[in-house]
Amino acid sequence: MSATEVVIIANVGANIASLRFALERLGANSLVSADAEHIRNATHVILPGVGAAADAMRRLRQMNLHTLIPSLLQPVLGICLGMQLLYEASEEGNTACLGIIPGRADRFEAAVGRPVPHMGWNTLKIERPGEFLEGLAQNDYAYFVHSYALKLGDATVASSDYGRPFSACVQWRNFYGVQFHPERSAKVGSRLLQNFLGL
Q1: Which residues 6+ apart lie within 8 Å of 88 measured at CB?
Q2: Virtual CA dihedral for 65, 66, 71, 74, nearest 10 degrees?
Q3: Beta bridge partner(s), residue 17
Q4: What is the model's pTM?
Q5: Is the pLDDT reported for residue 13 higher than 70?
Q6: Strand 87-90 to strand 141-146: parallel, antiparallel, or no bridges (unpaired)?
Q7: What's the burial of 158, exposed, middle or buried (CB within 10 Å: 0-12/13-18/19+)?
Q8: What is the pLDDT of residues 85-100, one digit of tens each?
Q9: Greatest CA span in the chain, whole angstroms?
Q10: What is the three-class DSSP state of 159?
């Protein structure tokens, strides 16, 4: 076994296969599991997410992971919806989430030339440099697909803008989050995953 053992929580995520491939390229073993013992014993945990907040939280509750995840002490990374689930709530379905980070995900307002979902490449603004963002530069591009977003707050370490500023990367104790998809964000995404694995 490698020194880094990553567990990807088996919740929901059409991106899981490409995420595992991205981790493999970085030399990290990964296991997709909803088993509490596997998750507790991992060196790093990833909570992916594609779909609706209410459905994702229902699955986490059914698997009794809604109380386990907030208690984890190793580095935990939420991706896309997985990042939003780390917060207190989502406007989507008025859903109570994991409650780890203060705040609520709100839906973007559509406008001419700015459809919802926000889909495609967008720039990152580094708000608070640190280990998690090492090697990333101002205005680097990442790939986003989302309709809901978090306002800037105490956890925000990088932001982006889509009609309004929103949190693109967050850090709260041992919990990290990215609103974009690192496995689809080329060198920027690869570097961010590498940084996470080094935490």
Answers
A1: 96, 97, 99, 101, 102, 103, 104
A2: 60
A3: none
A4: 0.96
A5: no
A6: unpaired
A7: buried
A8: 999 999 999 999 999 9
A9: 52
A10: strand
> How many residues are there in the chain?
199
- Three-state SS for 60-126 is HHHCCCCCHHHHCCCCEEEECHHHHHCEEEECHHHEECCCCEEEEEEECCCECCECCCEEEEEECEE
- Enumerate the active-site residues: 80, 181, 183
For the chain, the domains span 5-197
C-alpha separations of 5 from 76, 82, 100 in Å: 12, 19, 23
Q: Is residue 163 helix, strand or coil?
A: coil
Q: Which residue has the tokens 């990042």?
A: 83
- Provide φ and ψ at 131, rounded to 5°: -55, -40
* Superfamily in which the 5-197 domain is placed by CATH: Class I glutamine amidotransferase (GATase) domain (3.40.50.880)
> Comparing C-alpha atoms, which of 55, 127, 65 is closest to residue 100?
65
DSSP 180: S
